[in-house]
Amino acid sequence: MLGFSNGSGGGGVGAEDLAQLQSTMRAIELACSYIQINSNPVAAEATILSLHQSPQPYKACRYILENSQVANARFQAAAAIRESAIREWSFLATDDKGGLISFCLGYVMQHANSSEGYVLSKVSSVAAQLMKRGWLEFTPAQKEVFFYQINQAILGSHGLDVQFIGVNFLESLVSEFSPSTSSAMGLPREFHENCRKSLEQNFLKSFYQWAQDAALSVTSKIIESHSSVPEVKVCNATLRLMHQILNWEFPYSKGGTRASINVFSDGIRPDNALSRKTECVIVQPGASWCDVLLSSSHVGWLINFYSSVRQKFDLEGYWLDCPVAVSARKLIVQLCSLAGEIFPSNNVQMRDQHLLLLLTGVLPWIDPPDVISKEIEEGRSGSEMIDGCRALLSIGTVTTPVVFDQLLRSLRPFGTLTLLSMLMGEVVKVLMANSTDEETWSYEARDILLDTWTTLLTSMDGSGGNAWLPPEGIHAAASLFSLIVESELKATTEDDADCLASVSAMDERLGSYALIARAAVDATIPFLAKLFSDHVARLHQGRGTVDPTETLEEVYSLLLIIGHVLADEGEGETALVPDALQSHFVDVVEANNHPVVVLSSSIIKFAEQCLDAEMRSSIFSPRLMEAVIWFLARWSFTYLLLVEECNLGSNKLQSLPSRACLFTYFNEHNQGKFVLDIIVRISLTSLTSYPGEKDLQELTCFQLLHALVRRRNICFHLLSLDSWRNLANAFANDKTLFLLNSVSQRSLAQTLVLSAYGMRSSDASNQYVKDLMAHMTSSLVDLSNSSDLKNLAQQPDIIMLVSCVLERLRGAASATEPRTQRAIYEMGLSVMNPVLRLLEVYKHESAVIYLLLKFVVDWVDGQLSYLEAHETAVVINFCMSLLQIYSSHNIGKISLSLSSTLLNEAKTEKYKDLRALLQLLSHLCSKDMVDFSSDSIETQSTNISQVVYFGLHIITPLITLELLKYPKLCFDYFSLISHMLEVYPETLAQLNNDAFSHVLTTVDFGLHQQDVDIVTMCLRALKALASYHYKEKNAGNSGLGSHAAGHTDPNGVFHEGILSRFLRTLLHFLLFEDYSTDLVSTAADALFPLILCEPNLYQGLGNELIEKQANPNFKTRLANALQVLTTSNQLSSSLDRLNYQRFRKNLNNFLVEVRGFLKTR
C-alpha cells in the first residue's frame, strides 16, 4: 500500500503522482535552503512541519531520499518517516511496518559510501526506532530476517562501508532500547521495559559477539599497515559498540526477572558515587556472559591489539588521541569494572587473573609515573595516563583493598597501593610546579586518583576502619598525605584566588585527604600536631616584625585539613569519632599524651588567644577566625562532652585503654566544661568584635552555636555557664548584635531558645524562653501602642529595629519543641495585635510585610498541632484578620502602567508574600491531620476547611496567571489546591462564583504546564472534584450544585458546567497534546469520574471525533476504541480502587490505538 513492502525501488509511479512528488521535493529543498541562510525561516519551518504532520507521507519521503541532491532535505524526509510511522503505527499494515524498516536499512546499505554521514545516521536511527516500536509485535522469524541482513553486513560480506553501517545501526538500536537514551514514543513505561528485557535476554550478547567478530576481521590489517587504513573506522565503531553494550544496566541478568544485585558480594563495595567526581559504572552482565568476556581470550586480544598499535605508532604522539585509541582504552577501562556472577563462585582466581591481565596492559600507561609525567609536560598527550587512573579506580571499585594491593606484586617488587601513592605523588608535584588557573591533565588525574583512594579507604561496613591495610600501604598513605599537605600549604600562599575562597571551598578534596590520613594515623596525627605547633610558634616569633600573611594562610588551611581528619560531618546524624582514631595509639595510657588530644588541645589553646584584643588585632583576621569557628563546630560535635552511650563506634574498640583516654579527656568530669566555656566566649567575640563580617557571623550562628545545642547534655552545661548568660544578655541588649544580618539574627534566636531544653523541667524551660524573648515582644508592643506610630514607624532606625525583632521572633518560633511550646505560644499571642497594626502601617514596605508574614507562618506551623480548641480559634481569627488586612492593601496593587523594571519588582514582592500566605494556609490544614491537643475531634469548635477556603477566597484574586509562572509559588499553590480538593471537596461549593471560577481557571492553567508535578497535582484535584460530585449525586445530594450545571448568561450565551468543561479539556489534552507518559495513569484517575459525571457529553464528544474522520477504517476503529474504553475489563460505574486500575489499563490501550491517527492532520 505504501510502496515499502519490498524495501526497494518504489514500483511504477504515474506522471501525475511523479509531478506531485517532484513538487513536494522542491518545496522541502527550498525550505531547507531558506533555513540554512536564515531567510523567511517561519515559512520554511511551516513547510517542513507540514510534511511531518501530513498523513502517510511515506512515498514523498522515499522519493526525496532517493532523488534529492540536498542533504538536509533527505534528513528531513527521514525525520518525517519516523514521526509519521510512530504516530500512525497502530493502523499500518504488518507488511508496511516491515517495509519501512527494510527500506531504511536498504537505503543505508546502498549509500554506505556517502560522505553525508549525518543523513545515514538519521536513517539508521529511524530504522532502529521503528524496529523498537514493532518489537513486541514482530515474530521471532521476522526479527531473524532483519538481523540476518545486519549480521551479514557486520561480518564484512558487503565491504567495509556496509560493515561500518551495520555496526552503526546496532549502536542506534542498543541506544533506543536503553532507558536513558531511548526516544519518546508516547507509550507506557511497561512497553519500554518489556522491550529492554527481550533485547537483553535474547540479543544483546549476540550483538557483542558480532562486534567482536567484526573487530577481529579488521585488526590484523590495522596492525600490519604503516598508515591509516579504512579498517580503522570499522574497528573504532565495533569498539564503541562493545563499550556501549557493557554500559547496559543488565537488570535481567538472572533467570528472566530483575536481578537483585548485592553490591556487597564479590568484593564490590557500596556505591559512593555521590561523593566522587569520576563516574565508574560497575558491569554485571551475569554468568551467561562468561564465555564471551572471559573464556574467549577477548580481554587478551584487546590488550594485545592496543599494545601492538601503541608500540607501532609510539613516535606519533597524536595517535593517543585518535578515535580508535580512545575507544580501545575506554573498553579496557570498562572491562576493569567487570563484577558479579560472571565470575564463578567456585573459581575465585578467575577474577584476580582477569584483573591482573588488565593491569598488565594498563601499567605502561602510568608506570613509571615520573617518566610519563615528564613526557606529558614536554608535549605528550595526557589522555592515556588519565585513562590509566580510571582503570585503577575501576579495579578499586570491584575489589577489596587487600586484593587491589596484591595484584601488582607478581609484576613489581611493591604493591598496587604503593603505585597508587607514587602516581598521586607525581601528580601533586606537577600541580605544585604549575600553579596556574588553567585546569590541565594533572587536575583531572588528581580527582580520579582521589576518588580511587576514597573508594578503597571507605570500608565495607562504612565504619572507616583501616585494619586491612598492609604496612607497605600504610607507609605509602603516610608519605602521600605529607606531600598533599605540603602542596595545599604551598597553594594557599601562591594562589590569590584561593585566598578569597570560603571555608567550604576545599571540602571536595579534604574528605579524601582525611581518609588517606586516617589510613596511617600513627604517622599523620603526630605530623599534623608538629606542623601546627611549628606554625603557631612562627606566628609568635614574628609578631610585629614579619608579615604574618603567608603563615596565617597556612594555618587557615591546616585547620581545615585537621578538622576533616579528626571529625566527620555530622549534619543530620550523630557524629562518631572515626574508628581509625579510636583503634590506634594502643600504648597510650595518659590522656595528656594521646596524639588526638594533643592536637585538639593545641588548636583550642591557639583559638583561645583570640579573646585577647591585642592578639586578635595582630593575628586573628576575619578569615582566620572563619577557619577557627568552622573547626570548633566540627570538632565539638564529635568530641565535646561525650556521653558514654554515644560516639561508641565499633563494639570491639570499647575496651581499648587508649579509647578511654580519648573519650574522657573532654567529658564533664575533666576538661569538657572548661573547653565549652572557651568556645562560647570565642563565639561571643566573633559576633561582637568583627562587625560586618557576614560569613564569620553566619558560621558562628549556623554551625558552631547550633552544634552546641544539638545534644541535651551540652545544653544542660551551657545554661550553667556565665559565658552563655552573657551571650543571652548581649542578644537582648547589645546593640552590636542588632547589626547582624537577618539570617544570623534568626539562627541566633533559634539556638538560644533550643538551649532551654537543658533546663530540669518544662516550667523552667518556658520561663527561660519568656525571659529571653521578653525584650523583643515588649519592644513591638510599645511601638504599636505609640500615639505617633505612623510617623515613627517610617524612621530608618525603627524599620531596622522592627525587622531585627521579627527575625528573632521567627527564629524563636522555628525552635518550638514540646517543652517550650507554651512560652512560644504566649510570645506569639502577645504580639498578635502589634503584628496586625504593623501590617497596616508598613503596607508600602514590602520587606517588612514579608518578615511579618514569615513570622506568622513559622509560628502557626510550630504551634497549631499543640493547641486546644479555644486556642486554635484565637489563632484562626488572627490569621483571618491578617489575610483580610493584607488583601485590602494589595488587590490591584500591581499595575500594568508601571515600567517593566518596577513591574517585575512588584511581581517579585507579591510572589514572596503570596507564597508565605499559601504556606500559612497549608499549615492551617495540618491541624486536621496532626493534632496533639487533649480535645477530641468532636469538640473542635473551628472548621479548619472553612477557614482555609476563606483564606483562598481572600488571596485568589491576588494570584494571577503571571505570578503562577514563578515555579515555587506555582508548586505551593497547586499543592494547597490539590490537598484541599482531596480532603475538603465539600466546601469548595461555598466559594462565590468569582472565586470558584478563578480557582478552576488556575487548575486549567496548571494542566498545561511543563512541570510534571504541577500537572499531576491538577489532575489529582480534578479527580477529587469529579469523584466527590459523582458520589454525592448518587447519594441524593447536590454535590457541586450550580457550579456543575451549565447556565445561560444575560446575553443569552450558554456556559457549560465546570465538570463538562474539564471533561472536554482533559480529553483534548490526552488525545492531541504532548505530555509525559508518566501522566497517563493520573489522568485516567481524573477522566474516569468525569465520564461518570457527564456520560452524555462524553458520548457527544466521541461522536464528534468519529464524524471528523474521513477514513471509514478510522471511524470504525475510533468508535470501537471509545466503546471499549468504558466497557472492557469488567469496568463498572463504582469508583473503587479496582475500577480505577481497570480504567488505567483501558486508557493506555485506547491511547495506543487511536492517538496516532487522531494527531495526524
TrEMBL record:
Keywords: Cytoplasm, Nucleus, Protein transport, Transport. It is found in: Cytoplasm; Nucleus. InterPro entries: ARM-like (IPR011989), ARM-type_fold (IPR016024), XPO4/7-like (IPR044189). One of its GO terms (biological process) is protein transport. GO terms for cellular component: cytoplasm; nucleus. GO terms for molecular function: nuclear export signal receptor activity. It comes from the Eukaryota. Belongs to the exportin family. This is Exportin-4. The lineage of its organism: Eukaryota, Viridiplantae, Streptophyta, Embryophyta, Tracheophyta.
